[in-house]
Fold each of these.
Amino acid sequence: MKNNDFLIISTADWDSPIQTNKQYVSREIAKLGNRVLYIESLGVRKIQMKKKDLLRILKRIINNLIIIKQKEENIWVLSCILFPGATNKIIILINRMIFNFNLFIAMKLLNFHKDYLWTYNPLTSLYLNINKFKSSIYHAVDAIEHQPFMPKDLIKRQEIILSKKVDKIFVTSKNIVNKLKKYNSNISYFGNVCDYEHFSKSLSTHIDDIPTDIKSISKPIIGFIGSISEYKLNYKLIYDVAKSLKEINFVFIGPTDDSLNHSNLNRIKNLKNVYFLGFRKYKDLPSYCAFFDVGWLPLIHNNYTKSMFPMKFFEYLAAGLPVVSTNLESLREFRNFVAMSDDLSKIKIAIIEALKNKEFNLKNRLSLAMENTYQKRTKKMLMELN
C-alpha cells in the first residue's frame, strides 16, 4: 500500500522522550510511500502543575507558531493548543472548533486527502467526523482510562462510540480484544513489537562505546528501561528483590516524572545497589542494554497493566538479554522465552538462573524478536486494510 494519505491522531507528542507505537507506526507507513499527518496529543488528561506539564505547554505554544512541521520524509506534525482534560460539553465544543480549524489549514497547505484515519485517541469522535474518511482505524494500544488523572467515564463512553464507528480495530492485548469485540467484529490482535535493527546493536557494541555512567557500575546488572511510575511498576517488589540480592546491581533508565508517590520511589533509591540514571536518548539505549546482564519487567498488576503488552519484552530479546518478568497475561504465550513469576523467592531464583545461563536459548530469542518488528507488523496490518 502506497501513495495514500494517513491522518494519525496520537496520544503522545512526536518528540516524546518515550517513543511508542504512535511514532513507530507513523514511520513505517511513511517508509512505504504514504504521507502522514501526525496529530500530537489533544490533551486527554487533566494538566498537573508540574514542571513537565508546564514545559510541555510552553513547547506546544512555540510549536503552534508554525502550523505544520515536517519531521521526517513523508511525515508532518500538527500541534494544536486545546483546553487539556476537557469534560465540559462547551469546552469540548470549543476544542473541536479549534482543532478542526487547525486541521483544515494543515490539510489545505499539504493538499492532504481524507484517505485513512488512524487514531489512538478514544475521544476522536468528539473532535472529528470519522465518516468523512474513506477508511478509519482505531489502534487501541493501552487502557488509558486507568492512567492517573484521566477522565475515566468519558473515555469509556467515547471508546464504545468510536469502536462502533470505525471500519477496523487493531489491539495490542487480548484483554482489549475481549473489551471491544462486542462493539465491532472487525478486530485484530497484534501484540507490541520492537525495532530489532536498533536494539540488536547491543550485540556488537564495543566496551569503549559503553556510556561511562553505567560502565562505572559493577556487574552483574539487572536493567530496566521505560517510564518509571507506580501505576506501571511494582515498587514494593523492586525494593524487596534488590534488598535481598545485595550482590547484584539494579539499574533503571527512564523518566520518573510520572511517579506519584515519591516516598516509595525514594525508599528504593536509598538502596546502595539500585541506580536511577534518568532519561537517556533513544539512540543510546542499545549501548546501555549492552552492559545489562538481564532485562527486567517488574510490572505491577492492575487494570492498566492487565491490558498492557510491554514493548520492552521484544527490545530486551533483540538486545540478546534473558528476560525476567512478573506474571503478565500478555506474555504467557511466550513463556518459553521469559521467566515469569509474582513470588519473591521465585523471582530471585529466576534472576540468578538468568545470570548463570545468559546464552541459553539465545538464537531462538533473537529469532523471535526478529519476527516481531514494526516493519513486519505494520505491513500485516495494512494488508488487512486491503
Amino acid sequence: MASPSPSQTPAPAEQTFAERLSALEAIVKRMESGELPLEAALTAYSEGMQLLQACQRDLQQAEHTVMLLNQQQQLVPFETE
C-alpha cells in the first residue's frame, strides 16, 4: 500500500489533532525503516517537523483552555494517590 504523497495529504492546519498525530507516527515508522532515499527522508523529516509543531500548538491551546476553565469554575487539579 503506497503512502499518500504530500500533495494528497491535507495541510497540518486542515487536520484534526488525531489526524496529525497519526500522520506523524506514519512518518516516524517510514523513517525508522531505513528504506527511504535521502531526498525522501529529508522531505519526510520536514513534514514531520511541521506536524510536530502543529501538535504542540494544539496541546498548548488545550492546556490554556483547561487552565481558563479551572479558573472560571474553580476546579481543583486531579491528583492520583
